[in-house]
Design a protein that fits this description.
Strand order of the largest sheet of chain A: 2-3-4-11-6-9
CATH class of chain A: Mainly Beta
Number of helices of chain A: 0
Number of strands of chain A: 11
Mean pLDDT of chain A: 97
CATH superfamily of chain A: Jelly Rolls
Oligomer: homodimer
Largest sheet of chain A: 6 strands, antiparallel
Radius of gyration of chain A: 13 Å
Number of domains of chain A: 1
CATH topology of chain A: Jelly Rolls
Shape of chain A: globular
Low-confidence stretches of chain A: none
Largest interface: A-B, 36 and 36 residues
Order of helices and strands of chain A: EEEEEEEEEEE
Strand content of chain A: over 45%
Helix content of chain A: under 10%
CATH architecture of chain A: Sandwich
Chain lengths: 107, 107
């Protein structure tokens, strides 16, 4: 069934200190609308899901597969399955993360 | 292989009059960064891909499965496989569309 979702009405989850997210799940996808506070860090990790991080606002330093870049609005980062990645928020950030398959751990 | 993509460096496609998009494709997903000019219309159509439309800016009137809503920033619209949908841009809009599986027609 289709859904019109007002993200403000979805529960907000603190997935890590400084990372607050609202998630949309379908059978096959998870989409995270993530706000990151300046200075917050995502330690290196990996997961079976491929991930595409779309930076909407702010400056996010990302390290993926050993390569580090500063990512601003208009940057999309493709992270294949099981690829180590980490991040540091150089400012407050808003990103839209797409995961495939869905992330059961975020349900 | 991972990729850091500067969307400004990707080719822009006019998918319909008033709809210009830059696409990211993986084996399983297509993500469209779509700019829509005020007054532009997306005629009713459907496709095998499920679609989640994330409105980043602007006001987009969407009709999905016979239900019409005005969608602003912070709205996400879940459109299951083969569900008819159409749209009218009430202002200039920027949306991030996620398609699964990937859209060969946009490659």
């Amino acid at each position: 069934m289709h859904e019109f979702l007002n993200l403000d009405g979805l529960p907000e989850k603190e997935i890590l200190p400084g990372f607050t997210a609202r998630f949309i799940h379908t059978d096959t996808l998870t989409i995270g609308h993530v706000r990151i506070a300046r200075g917050s860090t995502l330690p290196e990790h990996s997961h079976i899901q491929e991930q595409i991080t779309n930076v909407v606002s702010g400056e996010l330093q990302m390290t993926v597969g050993g390569e580090t870049q500063t990512c601003g609005p208009g940057t999309a980062v493709v992270i294949p399955s099981n690829t180590p990645h980490s991040a540091l928020a150089l400012s407050d950030c808003y990103v839209i993360d797409v995961f495939q398959p869905a992330r059961a751990d975020y349900k």
